[in-house]
Automatic annotation (TrEMBL):
InterPro entries for the chain: Epimerase_deHydtase, NAD(P)-bd_dom_sf
Top-level taxonomic group: Bacteria
Protein species of origin: Paramixta manurensis
UniProt KW keywords: NAD
Identification of the protein by name: UDP-glucuronate 4-epimerase
Domain NAD-dependent epimerase/dehydratase: 4-230
Gene3D superfamilies: NAD(P)-binding Rossmann-like Domain (3.40.50.720)
Entry keyword NAD: yes
Length: 334
């Protein structure tokens, strides 16, 4: 099958592209290779994808003509849309980057899907959409109308925009609410990467909210496997669905939203301890207050995911962190 993967030079996009290629599919990967973090890492991820079935095109999601031409040129059957301006904290100071990549960009992808009868669009949402929700574990059956960062608001907006296109044009769409993804080839702006770099350099690490946070840390291979299985689960309209009686994660349109998380939340201090063990050293910790836009706890209810794909993320953080550290030491030769 012929796939478009957006954000192919990114952390999740590069892994998903490899997973699709290893199953014999054709993949066109796009990415604008922006410098939000080290561009060399993005190039290195692309260098890993060695397959005659892979074509890389550098282009910007927000470039309406370029995205329209891309869909015109390639007869995509399925689209896995992972490119976005990521990061909660960066959205406090750089809100417009999120409007361009996540709102205009998402609309351009939806338009491409609309005009080229795409069989299935899967797109990245985020656990951050749960915002002020306090009921744990977070369930896709609960409403998510109170985001606490612009990043989260754009991800919720992506779900709303997708629902509209599923309803109006019958495009099957699946939203993927990822919970803190980590692992080899990860993102330098995320805690595990920053902690590892600092600890190896003998610097102290910044621990927010005095470490009083819990996260559902999800290993990258589990994310790639979940997406790989979900792309075959094409949403169907649920004729019996009503706003009053149905779940927000489903609809009378061919629309679904799933949590993809480890469903075993770990405290930030336990996560740091696992990293200290893997590195064989103790970190000096700089205890800081809570950051604006952050949430205290995340925990995924993955029952609906398991029901449709017979799989749920389950890699133990100690094992996942060990694999990350092995990769980090090898890649940076430290
Ligand atoms: N990693 C996580 O923990 C996590 C959690 C929840 C949701 N997500 C979402 O999953 C998706 C993938 O995240 P990731 O961790 O791989 O991030 P990433 O930053 O590594 O990958 C995103 C890629 O998109 C590209 N990109 C950004 N703006 C673009 C634009 N305007 N045009 C073209 N390309 C553009 C970037 O260059 C990057 O390579 C994102 O949508 C992110 O918001 C990630």
């Amino acid at each position: 099958m012929n796939y478009l993967v957006t954000g192919a030079a990114g952390f999740i996009g590069s892994h998903v592209s490899q997973r699709l290629l290893s199953a014999g599919h054709q993949v066109v990967g796009i990415d604008n290779l922006n410098d939000y973090y080290d561009v060399n890492l993005k190039h290195a991820r692309l260098d890993l994808i060695q397959s005659p079935n892979f074509t890389f095109i550098q282009c910007d999601l927000a470039d309406r003509q370029a995205i329209a031409a891309l869909f015109e040129e390639h007869a995509f059957q399925r689209v896995i849309h992972l490119a976005a301006q990521a990061g909660v904290r960066y959205s406090i100071d750089n809100p417009h980057a999120y409007a361009d990549a996540n709102l205009v960009g998402h609309l351009n992808i939806l338009e491409g899907c609309r005009h080229h009868k795409i069989e299935h669009l899967l797109y990245a949402s985020s656990s951050s959409v749960y915002g002020l929700n306090r009921k744990l574990p977070f369930s896709t059956d609960d409403s998510v109308d109170h985001p606490v960062s612009l990043y989260a608001a754009t991800k919720k907006a992506n779900e709303l925009m997708s629902h509209t296109y599923s309803h109006l044009y019958g495009i099957p769409t699946t939203g993927l609410r990822f919970f803190t993804v980590y692992g080899p080839w990860g993102r330098p702006d995320m805690a595990l990467f920053k902690f590892t770099r600092a600890i190896i350099a003998g610097e102290s690490i910044d621990v927010y909210n005095n470490g009083q946070m819990r996260r559902d840390f999800t290993y990258i291979d589990d994310i790639a496997e979940s997406i790989f299985r979900l792309q075959d689960v094409i949403p169907q309209p649920d004729e019996s669905w009503t706003v009053e009686t149905g779940s927000p994660a489903t609809s009378s349109a061919p629309y679904r939203v799933y949590n993809i998380g480890n469903s075993q939340p770990v405290s930030l201090m336990a996560y740091i301890e696992a990293l200290e063990d893997a590195l064989g050293t103790t970190a000096r910790k700089n205890m800081l207050p809570m950051q604006p836009g952050d949430v205290l706890d995340t925990s995924a209810d993955t029952a609906a995911l398991y029901q449709v794909i017979g799989f749920k993320p389950q890699t133990d953080v100690k094992e996942g962190i060990k694999r990350f550290v092995t990769w980090y030491r090898e890649f940076y030769r430290v």
